[in-house]
């Protein structure tokens, strides 16, 4: 019998949805994990998030199904509506259909609840989370990171999951690399459904958990129920009018009403119920040449390397997939093993897919935001058509299968059988990741 390998110590920068997913998967592969988070407390912004089945499949394999299902709403269907009168242009069944087709549900959840479920799981597994730990410098060879207080942490591998404005990415590149403006911003609003139920025009929107998309010239709106259907999550996507130095700002009700005054009366009425809204500049990334440092002791993950417009609702799902794949690949690796091959495979498995999602989300902007005219009429005709050539990615058969059918566990197993086993030796059977 070969001697048992010593677990790695993996240092993850950032306790967002991506960093925590990576922490869970890496810990489940038997390694010691420390997460460094700059904030003084753990949490997420107060808004909803969609969890597609390619992500829920991973999360459920970590036994998070009961906690997530209890906190989430299962949408019945996606409905794409015309902006003017709300008439239906396309519909895709979700509840029941995605479970049967992809083995996991589509979920709508409050970000705070999602984050809390991941934090609890990470802690239960013994992941150490260090708060007030803003990383300011990295020694890529050691590897080691230094935080603002001057304290240094060493490890066998550093994973940078520090988001869109990643400091670690800039240190890795050795130059400034600010995120790219997309030209759009998002208003995020939460409305109480008990207020909607008082209004005959809005009551219907609270009765069945549809995700409603209204698409129109230069803008679109995405709305769905949250938290036992007690909240209605509204995201309005509009041209970016924020001053260059202001990425986030409060929004006034009159501003929202002015932008959507000619839209479906249900949407305009809905906006009269909003008392507080925040607008966020939407930025994304251009593809990096590589995610892995030449030392083979540092890599990037999540928004830090593939931030996207949220139009496919896949940004966090990509970060969860990254975490599951990286953590899964690390099972069977020990201290003293060179990490070059395993990190090369991680990048190979993840970069192509995430680049396609970033591009696909930007392309969808053009589809959603068409101005009235011949092209828009043709788009609507195709939206009303069947699965083939449908510009709605959740309806187009091939695109849907590519997005929702991704199986992170199978990718990991294949990579080991087809290459990593020859480099690192056979890994032990069993373990939680084998459930993926
Ligand atoms: C309007 C909108 C709607 C969206 N809707 C969806 C959706 O429905 N579905 C979906 O899948 N995705 C969605 N997304 C995308 C999703 O929110 C992101 O892709 C995801 O949250 C990225 O996670 P992350 O962990 O990579 O980064 P982040 O969530 O940004 O986490 C990074 C963490 O690192 C910490 N950090 C940063 N710098 C440092 C440092 N120097 N040292 C230590 N810690 C640091 C931060 O404090 C933070 O906790 C949406 C995005 C937007 C803007």
From TrEMBL:
Record's keyword terms, sorted: FAD, Flavoprotein, Monooxygenase, Oxidoreductase
Annotated GO MF terms: FAD binding; monooxygenase activity
Top-level division of the source organism's lineage: Eukaryota
Compositionally skewed regions (Basic and acidic residues) per UniProt: 369-387
Ranges for region Disordered: 369-392
InterPro entries referenced in this protein's UniProt entry, alphabetically: FAD-bd (IPR002938), FAD-dep_Monooxygenase_BioMet (IPR050493), FAD/NAD-bd_sf (IPR036188)
Domain FAD-binding, residue spans: 9-360
Claim: Flavoprotein is one of the keywords in the record: yes
One protein family per Pfam: FAD_binding_3
Family: Belongs to the paxM FAD-dependent monooxygenase family.
PANTHER family reported for this sequence: MONOOXYGENASE (PTHR13789), PUTATIVE (AFU_ORTHOLOGUE AFUA_2G01950)-RELATED (PTHR13789:SF147)
Protein name: FAD/NAD(P)-binding domain-containing protein
